[in-house]
Amino acid sequence: MSTAPPSDDQSNVAEATATKIDAEKSDWSNLPKTHPLHHFGIALGGTEGILAGTDYNEMYGVELVPGTEDKPAPHTTLLILQKFLRANTGDLDQAKSQLSAALKWRKEYQPLKAVDEAFDGEKFRGLGYISKVKAATETKNEEDVVAYNIYGAAAKDSKKVFGDTDAFVRWRVAQMELTLAQLNLNNAEQTIPDYGKGPDPYTAINVHDYMSVSFFRQPAEIKASSSKLIDLFQRYYPETVSYKYFVNVPIVMQWMMGAMKALMSKDSIQRMTWMTYGNQLHTYLGSDVPKEYGGTGLPLEGNAITPRYAPVGAAVEATSTNQTDATHATPPEVTTASTAKRAGEPPITAE
């Protein structure tokens, strides 16, 4: 029996219904009042609220605006709050504590200002890049932001790169803030699922390239800088990375991955991939990666986003006192799911 094609009215109704469903999927305006995210938004406001207590209202470049009993916080604020909730497996009290600590740190350290600072190119040029790819196989995104850290660039003189821990951390924070800016959170339209119910679409991919890096001989300055940076990122940048790819890792070191798995959560293991050859990366990130990673994309140098560098021979302004203190200060103890599950990551990654 043949079926008559749908009328124009029927097609319009079907299209409108589909549009409505899609809108509901990306809309928090009907967020239940019992949802932890709704309560989190309310907790931002008031004289005893998180924003008043920290005297700061910016996170990842997004202005945080409180919600009320009758109205949820703005969409972009909810995005940030959901990241902190997910990092704490939905535990609202722990999420509040971590957010408060992160806001206090951002007020003191001023990471957004690092983006406009000029760094010593002789130390850091060639060490980090940010670009985008459109065919990553492990995410559901049409396009992904990728942050590359080329540790082989520092292998010849690790003391010059990592010797000044404060300068290296400041540079790496600048790269992170530039990466977050590429996520365009202030114009985000999708929602982020609750913990355990799907991936966060607003995260970046990290690539760590270890070409020419020795795994057997790690100088003290690398260990010191790596430890400080890993701790800082775990505390103050939750839910910012989706997957990590470690490339050009010597075959002889593959045993390290097996040993690390015993110390890591299943979630962490699934988000980390080690490969011996850099040209294998395209099988995960598609053809947009540069030639050395098996793709056909443009070279990173001269095309990708990087922190700013001072002209050769120009004096580089030293890290200000308050920034140095913020780097060295012992942060408040915040135990989160993200810190616990990532405790087994290799110190050489320097995030």
Task: Give an account of the 3D structure.
Strands 4-5-6-7-8 form a five-stranded mixed sheet. A two-stranded antiparallel ribbon has the order 1-2. Helix content is 40%, strand content 11%. Mean pLDDT is 83; it is low at 1-6, 10-25 and 327-350. The chain is an alpha/beta fold. Helix 2 (36-44) packs across helix 4 (75-87), helix 4 (75-87) packs across helix 5 and helix 9 runs parallel beside helix 10. It has helices spanning 8-25, 36-44, 50-54, 75-87, 92-109, 111-114, 121-124, 158-162, 165-182, 220-236, 254-261, 266-270, 282-285, 321-328, 337-341; strands at 58-59, 62-63, 118-119, 128-133, 144-150, 204-209, 241-247, 272-274, 308-309. Helix 10 (220-236) links the parallel strand 6 and strand 7 (241-247). The protein folds into two domains: 25-109, no CATH class; 113-293, CRAL-TRIO lipid binding domain (Phosphatidylinositol Transfer Protein Sec14p, 3-Layer(aba) Sandwich).
Q: Trace the largest sheet across and list its strands.
A: 4-5-6-7-8
- Taking pLDDT < 50 over at least 5 consecutive residues as the criterion, the unreliable ranges are 1-6, 10-25, 327-350
pLDDT average, as an integer? 83
Give the C-alpha Rg.
22 Å
Kindly, what is the distance between the CA atoms of the first and last residues, rounded to a whole number of angstroms? 62 Å
- CATH topology call of the largest domain: Phosphatidylinositol Transfer Protein Sec14p
Topology:
Blueprint: H1 8-25, H2 36-44, H3 50-54, E1 58-59, E2 62-63, H4 75-87, H5 92-109, H6 111-114, E3 118-119, H7 121-124, E4 128-133, E5 144-150, H8 158-162, H9 165-182, E6 204-209, H10 220-236, E7 241-247, H11 254-261, H12 266-270, E8 272-274, H13 282-285, E9 308-309, H14 321-328, H15 337-341
Parallel strand pairs: 3-9, 5-6, 6-7, 7-8
Antiparallel strand pairs: 1-2, 4-5
